[in-house]
Design a protein that fits this description.
This protein is an alpha/beta fold. Helices cover about 40% and strands about 20% of the residues. Strands 3-2-4-5-6 form a five-stranded parallel sheet, sandwiched between helices. Strands 7-8-9-11-10 form a five-stranded mixed sheet, sandwiched between helices. Strands 14-15-16-18-17 form a five-stranded mixed beta barrel.
Length: about 600
């Protein structure tokens, strides 16, 4: 019996209506891909048309942002009075790209702009008093924050005492007592009427650029040209690639393909990235290198790279960021091992550990621990009498709301549902840890395995090139719109072998041909799977071309003994079809064409 490593979870959703199937057919999209879209919330012909429409049509009116008028009026006054403006951006990729967007926008309006990126160790998240002091010394009369500031009540007040107005642009939770800013541009305000609250910090900055540039000659095109930066911020912050975020990502990828700005072109070249840039490249090549500057180096180097218009300067900065990324990898590997040892075999509702670790990598370590266990992870760095912690969520846990219930113990906190952070006096750590365990106790899933989302479950004989091409039209893929994985049922293993790099290669027979499979990072399959085994696999479908021939291949994520999935579905009384029988090749009488949809 081959046990799957993951808990296979079939996407729940309604069976697509006849009207949706008809509209999809008219658009050249098959019923199986349409079923995936229906499960992801595209339920009507109008929603399908919007999904497939040109990306620019997916952008909302920036004038609907909260405090849009106050923002415009304050920036207009700054232009009229020739004020100097500080743009304060967070030190992660979302904040850095958002900072670049706002700096480019304000400079295009003729303003003198001073970019400021705080030190992760010395200043932490949020508008800092050090930045306010620097602004006052530089003669700044207006600070614009990006990806931060919604909780900076004291710092905004301190700026006001120095005669400095603050405009906050952010996407994090807004506390009950908000700062007294000149404008608070945050779609999460309780009084906000903005149509899509899922924007990243850079996404909000992109909308601010659209707002401010709308009336300028060539301004609309300039604003749209900033979508590449907003895309990096969106992906790095794991904002869902749906709604307006998807529109931004499509525009951004087009910009990256057609005319990448010098800093990004240099960073891609330095990393050895080849081929077209997709969201995977953004997430695994660009974002980590931008983040690395703030984790183990100078975050301002990343901001300078994004703003650079000189190729030589950009190449030098790209080399610096790439070196910082290598250092970050080594530190992360070391701290992760120590954190795993500190956590031991704890089977509680969350992993909560602390140690003498660099602040710059604890968020990455928390992410890895959460991925390992499928539960929230909280990793603290000892800073003398203070512990600074990063948190990453598990399924169904709102970390920001959880921390709000611990506010009496915390020096400061903030974030959103999936990722958050806080500072706590070291003497309160144990009390906080006990309360967090209590609050999170109800979130422990009955099956401790990590979930693996399955978009379709299909007999192997009906997996074909048409399906591959249809699923590709649902791109770009990312958080909220993941690459559709397919459970391919009823295969026979004819060959299995370990491959270099910790991978496993498989040859899988279906009637009347075979499919090649590669399981990246799954060297365990070379010993748990044997020739002759009847298996089901969860895989990403890919089409490879070599020597003028096209072949269908499977990027295998998990393997189970054949029939295990169908047996589990039958036991749960789940067997509604995923696609109409006419959409797949006919099989033996009574054989299911597709299995697995919650009713």
């Amino acid at each position: 019996m081959i046990e799957p490593r993951y808990r296979w979870v079939l996407q729940a959703g309604p069976t697509p209506s006849r009207a949706l199937l008809a509209a999809a057919a008219e658009a050249g999209l098959g019923p199986r891909a349409t079923t995936v879209l229906a499960a992801r919330g595209v339920a009507t012909p109008a929603e399908l048309a919007a999904f497939l429409a040109p990306a620019e049509l997916g952008l909302h009116d920036a004038g609907l942002l909260p405090d849009a008028d106050r923002l415009r009026e304050r920036v207009d006054r700054a232009r009229r009075d020739a004020e100097t403006v500080m743009v304060f951006g967070d030190f992660d990729a979302d904040g850095l790209t958002g900072l670049a967007i706002v700096v480019i926008t304000l400079r295009s309006l003729g303003l003198s702009v001073l970019p400021y990126v705080p030190s992760r160790l010395d200043e932490g998240h949020g508008l800092s008093l050090a930045a306010v002091d620097a602004a006052a010394s530089a003669g700044v009369t207006l600070i614009v924050t990006v990806d931060t500031g919604s909780s900076s009540v004291d710092e905004v007040a301190a700026a006001a005492d120095r005669g400095i107005d603050v405009i906050i642009t952010d996407h994090h939770r807004v506390p009950a007592s908000a700062p007294g800013a000149a404008a608070l541009v945050n779609p999460h305000r309780v009084d906000a009427n903005y149509p899509d609250r899922r924007l990243s910090g850079a996404g909000v900055a992109f909308k601010v650029a659209q707002l401010l540039l709308a009336g300028e000659p060539g301004g609309s095109a300039l604003a749209l040209g900033l979508a590449d930066l907003a895309t990096i911020g969106t992906v790095s912050d794991m904002a869902p690639i749906i709604g307006e975020n998807r529109a931004i990502a499509r525009l951004g990828l087009d910009r990256l393909a057609a005319a990448p700005r010098p800093g990004l072109a240099a960073l891609l070249a330095r990393a050895g990235a080849k081929g077209p840039v997709d969201l995977e490249t953004v997430g695994f090549v660009l974002a980590p290198r931008l983040n690395a500057a703030g984790r183990v180096g100078e975050a301002m180097d990343a901001a300078s790279l994004l703003l650079s218009e000189d190729q030589t300067e950009a190449e030098a900065l790209a080399e610096t960021l790439d070196a910082a990324n290598l250092t970050r990898r080594d530190l992360t590997r070391q701290v992760l091992g120590e954190a795993r040892t500190a956590a031991g075999g704890d089977g509680g509702p969350a992993t909560i550990v602390r140690g003498p670790w660099p602040v710059g990598v604890i968020g990455l370590v928390a992410s890895r621990l959460s991925e390992d266990t499928g539960r929230p992870a909280i990793v603290g760095a000892d800073l003398g009498d203070l512990v600074r912690a990063s948190c990453r969520s598990g399924p169904g846990v709102d970390l920001a709301a959880t921390l709000e219930r611990c506010a009496d113990l915390l020096e400061r906190h903030g974030g959103h549902a999936g990722a958050a952070g806080f500072e706590v006096a070291a003497i309160h750590w144990d009390t906080l840890r006990d309360r967090l365990f209590e609050l999170l106790a109800t979130t422990v899933p009955p099956d401790p395995r990590l979930p693996l989302s399955v978009a379709l479950a299909l007999p192997a004989r009906v997996v074909d090139y048409d399906l591959v091409r249809d699923l590709a039209r649902l791109a770009p893929f990312g958080t909220g719109n993941p690459d559709p994985l397919v459970a391919v049922l009823g295969l026979t293993v004819t060959r299995v072998r370990a491959a270099n790099g910790g991978h496993t290669q498989l040859v899988l027979r279906r009637d009347p041909d075979v499919l090649d499979g590669i399981a990246f990072g799954r060297d365990d399959l070379a010993t748990t799977v044997a020739e002759g085994d009847r298996v089901d696999v969860v895989a990403r479908l890919v089409s490879r071309k070599f020597g003028g021939f096209e072949s269908l291949q499977l990027e295998v994520r998990d393997v189970a003994s054949a029939g295990e999935l169908e047996a589990r579905l039958a036991a749960a009384d789940v067997a509604a079809p995923l696609a109409s029988p006419s959409s797949v090749t006919a099989g033996p009488p009574g054989a299911p064409d597709v299995v697995g949809r919650g009713r």
